[in-house]
Amino acid sequence: MAKDLETKVPFSKNRHSRDRQTRRKQANVLLHICRAISEAGAPAHRLESYMQVISEKFNLEASFFAMPTAVLASIGEDEYSQRSYMIKTDPNDINLGTLHTINDVINQLENDVIDLDTALKSIKSITTEATEYPNWLFALCFGLVGGGFTTLFAGSWYDVVAASVLGLLTGIITIYSKPYKYLSQLLTPLAALVVGFTALTISHYWQTIDHFLVSLAGLIILVPGLGITIAMRELSTGHLVSGSSRMAGAVTTLFLLSFGLALGYLIAQSIYGDTEVNKMANVPTWFNYLALVITALCFSVLFKARFADTFWIFLSIGLAFAGSSLIGLWMSQPFKSLAAVLLVSMVGNIYSRVSSNPASVMHIPGIILLVPGSIGFNSLSAMYTNDTMTGVQAAFNAALIAVAISVGLLVGNLIVPPKKDL
Q1: Residue 368: other Cβ atoms inside 10 A
Q2: Greater model confidence, 304 or 19
Q3: Pairwise CA distance, residues 31 & 54, whole Å
Q4: 367: Cβ–Cβ under 8 A, 6 or more apart, which residues?
């Protein structure tokens, strides 16, 4: 009997040690997933819900508190043995490829295709591996998106060409300022200054463009319309800290863009004098549809999506455009945005349930066409020119559209619940 006890005691210690080691690995995996998802642009409500589901599958008691620049996590076997962690994150642009890869790793882990060590290596490699798209392609997509959005603003052929050039300039400044800390902090006003000065220069010498329209289209990627919408969504789902800070960041970006653009205009006007806005004939209708296709392909690159997801991104943007256009025959803003987002939300959730892929692959590209960033930009620009009433009205309209988009997403989740929270 004594011999039996001697053999059993070491075994129980080894088992306890092995279980504790497994828990540490699981917590390590959770923390790395949390950081990767946050830096891929996932909003607080999606991140917290997704992490809660994963921790429950690990049989861990965990709670997460997400903010745009940090995530607080408490993880343990029960609520009395939790350890607290703080993860510092760098807010980046939306990265659909990262969200998709993390989702694949979790699916493989759930199905016992890979173990915890392999999962941890895969997740670590996600944040360190280089993007599959070269820098020149990103810059080109900035230009093409600028030209594509000009058609939505009822621009002319001259406006499309000028906006494409200005968008390319914005892309070059964005890409090549990132390695330099202090220059990257000035990215937003610097890009707006260069775009504003260049737009007025083109308008002065060629007198064929609407310089304000092409300036807005050239800067459209930097306009934080999606940030405003996500912030409103977080506020509406009770994530007050994250929503408030994200809204403050988006409004600050709008102020920086408006200030930089106003400064660029001021410098150009001091050199050239007053420059008139030149309205030319709009592009034909068929070009609007071609621009939509090109814009969808460009967003696949800008959101760093997998090439295999290009079709779904195109479908999402097409649904948003068609839904907004058709519903706009009977309704005006913000109700047409509400209906269009409701359609995109339900289709994206159906896609997620059928394919087990993140619904964000379809949600984010579809929303990007409907977000009120350009209206908010126009609001601040009007205020800079002392047109206060127009500015206040535009700001109110932007807020209404952001609320409508948030409600549309929530109702879509109610009608067709997503399979995944990503």
Answers
A1: 24
A2: 304
A3: 11
A4: 226, 229, 320, 341, 344, 405, 409
Query: CA–CA distance from 402 to each of 230, 334, 378, 395, 396 (Å)?
Result: 8, 9, 15, 11, 10
Q: Which residue, among 50, 42, 31, 43, has the nearest Cα to 107 in the 3D structure?
A: 50
Identify the CA nearest to 94 among candidates 64, 144, 131: 131
pLDDT of residue 146 exceeding 60, the answer is yes
For residue 97, name the pLDDT band (cuts at 50, 70, 90). Answer: confident
**Minimal CA–CA distance to 359: which of 412, 397, 323?**
412
Instruction: Name the region of 42 (left: φ>0; alpha: ψ -120 to 50; beta: rest).
Output: beta
Across 137-155, average pLDDT: 89
Full-model pTM: 0.84
Quote the Cα angle for 369-164-288, to 5°.
50
Q: Identify the band that residue 15 occupies on the pLDDT scale cut at 50, 70 and 90.
A: very low
Instruction: Tell whether the model's pLDDT for residue 139 goes beyond 60.
Output: yes
Q: Are β-strands 70-76 and 83-88 bridged in parallel, bridged antiparallel, or unpaired?
A: antiparallel
Paired tokens of 308: 């295999």
Q: Provide the H-helix boundaries in 223-358.
A: 225-236, 240-272, 285-302, 310-327, 335-355
Q: Residue 145 is encoded by which pair of tokens?
A: 């998106």
Exposed / middle / buried, residue 100 (Cβ in 10 Å: 0-12, 13-18, 19+): buried
Q: Residue 374 in contact with residue 220, Cβ under 8 Å?
A: yes
Residue type, 319: L
Tokens linked to 247: 């809204």
Q: Which residue in 397, 410, 343 sits closest to 371, CA to CA?
A: 397
Q: Is the CB of residue 394 less than 8 Å from the CB of residue 373? A: no
Buried b (16+ CB within 10 A) or exposed e, 250-269: bbebbebbbbbbbbbbeebe
Task: Output the CA torsion sign for 40, 44, 49, 54.
Answer: positive
Measure the CA–CA gap between 270 and 327, rounded to whole angstroms: 45
Nearest to residue 219, comparing CAs of 192, 256, 198?
Answer: 192
Residue type, 245: S
**pLDDT, tens digit, 9 for 90 and up, residues 334-354:** 888 888 899 999 999 999 888
